[in-house]
Design brief:
The strands form three sheets. Strands 1, 2, 3, 6 and 7 form a five-stranded mixed β-sheet that branches. Strands 9-10-11-8-12 form a five-stranded parallel β-sheet, with helices on both faces. A two-stranded antiparallel ribbon has the order 4-5. The protein is globular. Helix 5 packs parallel to helix 6, helix 11 crosses helix 12 and helix 13 crosses helix 14. The chain is α/β, with parallel strands linked by helices. The chain contains 20 helices and twelve strands. 51% of the residues lie in helices and 11% in strands.
């Protein structure tokens, strides 16, 4: 029975919406897409312009691929139909554009179709190579746009960037092996590690460099196990000179995958091959990973990417506009840099949204347009703050070790810090009182209620304590 393309696309949109960082991204890049037909597992979608096509290909193809496989099956394919504006009388000469990786497409007709391609086009090609074959071509999976030239240096990333350059110049021969880069999402981890890979490829063309995320590694390992090709899988990864794995926290709870990676790690490290890893948290905070693997994560250098300051954010926007050939007043860039302060991805997303609004709706890029888009983004991306982040923030503010919050000590400063953490967890998360108590000192819901009442009373009667609570609250509202 043929699946109706409208119903199919609605299912895809539901999944995509749940996996995007912000509602604005969904409204800007997926709402305008229209499904046209479904034929033999080939879904044809219509996008408003070549600009849309290029942006989706560059930023969302992995999400689209995974979504289509989930909804339509492993054989899913995707085809684009791109609408072009009708030319004026003076512009009716046939023209053509060069799409990335595609042949010239004649735009004489209003609608044209891109050749269909497998939605797996970003999956590593042929990962099961016969062991012992040398000089085989392995697609490094590196994005050429993620170079060091496009990575703006600031106080927030100087250590990590410097370490990355050192690794790139002396791959496998430094003490930075593995190089472990961690940060909150959207601060440039993937960009930095791919920049290292690109630099290595340029300096050492014969080295085999491979970049992938932990989810892809895990899926390939599962497929190899099912097909009884585990040895081929292991041999393939043992041939890599520079292995870059993004988001290793996703290995948590996957014991057999961890065991396979443990063996690959040991082999590569012993052979002085370079290993580069990223995570959304430092090794000490990753749960669900075997101790023996965590200890290896700590063998080399762990470097954090922190939130960029205003000047770094402004430089990022200036570089982006220069690279893309966009002319935007510095006043507008300064406004965006001032109001999007915690996430580089959102910073660049605002810029792209400005360009999209200007192109599609024929609007001039102004400060008012920037304000409108920024307000929507800030409003739509306010998320529940995690209890772990609340505990960390409170402990940092009062200068106490995080472990003390979990202890049974009755020291006044520890008890009060614990109560403050409970107070903010109730205010800023949707967790139940029982969950909050369990995660903050192993207490029950009655203790959480008592803590909130105590903090409210102190805020009303103690001016200094009220300032403490206000200072901490400002940190949460900046998230």
């Amino acid at each position: 029975m043929e699946v109706q393309h409208e119903t199919l696309w609605e299912k895809c949109l539901d999944i995509i919406k749940d996996n995007l960082d912000s509602k604005l991204s969904f409204e800007t890049w997926f709402k305008p897409i229209k499904p046209l037909k479904i034929d033999n597992n080939v879904l044809t979608i219509q996008v408003p312009s070549p600009f849309y096509y290029e942006y989706i290909e560059a930023h969302y193809i992995d999400l689209l691929s995974k979504t289509l496989r989930k909804v339509l099956g492993a054989e899913a394919k995707l085809e684009y139909s791109v609408i072009m504006e009708q030319p004026t009388q003076a512009e009716k000469t046939p023209t053509a554009v060069q799409m990335p990786g595609k042949s010239n497409v004649n735009l004489n007709n209003k609608i044209f179709h891109q050749p269909s391609y497998s939605s797996d086009n970003k999956i590593i090609r042929n990962p099961f190579i016969i062991p012992g074959i040398k000089n085989i071509h392995i697609d490094s999976q590196l994005n050429p746009n993620y170079s060091f030239d496009n990575f703006i240096e600031g106080e927030c990333n100087r250590l990590a960037r410097s370490a990355g350059l050192t690794v790139a110049q002396n791959s496998g021969k430094t003490n930075f092996n593995p190089l472990f880069i961690y940060s909150k999402p959207g601060l440039g981890k993937s960009h930095l590690v791919q920049a290292i890979g690109i630099e290595i490829k340029e300096k050492f063309p014969k080295k085999t460099v491979l970049y992938l995320d932990a989810d892809t590694f895990q899926r390939q390992f599962a497929e190899a196990t099912i097909k009884n090709e585990r040895n081929d899988f292991m041999h393939f990864y043992q041939m890599i000179d520079v292995l870059i794995i993004d988001d290793v926290q996703w290995f948590a709870g996957k014991e057999r995958t961890q065991n396979a990676f443990f063996q690959i790690f040991n082999y590569l490290h012993q052979k002085n091959k370079q290993i580069i890893l990223t995570s959304d948290r430092p090794p000490v905070e990753i749960q669900g990973i075997e101790d023996r693997l965590l200890s290896r994560f700590k063998w080399g250098l762990s470097a954090e990417l922190m939130v960029p300051d205003f000047q770094t954010r402004l430089e990022i926007l200036k570089r982006k506009t220069y690279t893309d050939g966009i002319d935007i007043d510095e006043e507008i860039l300064e406004y965006v840099a001032n109001h999007i302060s915690t996430n580089i991805r959102e910073l660049e997303g605002i810029l792209i949204s400005l360009l999209a609004q200007s192109t599609i709706n024929n609007k001039e890029i102004t400060v008012d347009l920037a304000k409108d888009i920024v307000e929507k983004l800030v409003k739509n991306t306010q998320q529940d703050i995690s209890i772990d982040f609340i505990k960390k923030t409170v402990c940092e503010y009062f200068s106490i070790p995080l472990e003390q919050l979990k202890s049974k000590t009755r020291k006044r400063e520890i008890v009060q810090s614990r109560q403050v953490a409970m107070y903010f967890a109730k205010s800023f998360t949707k967790n139940s009182l029982a969950t909050i108590g369990a995660q903050i000192g192993g207490k029950d819901h009655a203790t959480v209620l008592h803590a909130c009442k105590t903090i409210n009373n102190l805020v009303e009667t103690d001016k200094r304590f009220k300032r403490y609570v206000s200072d901490i609250e400002k940190r949460f509202k900046m998230q």
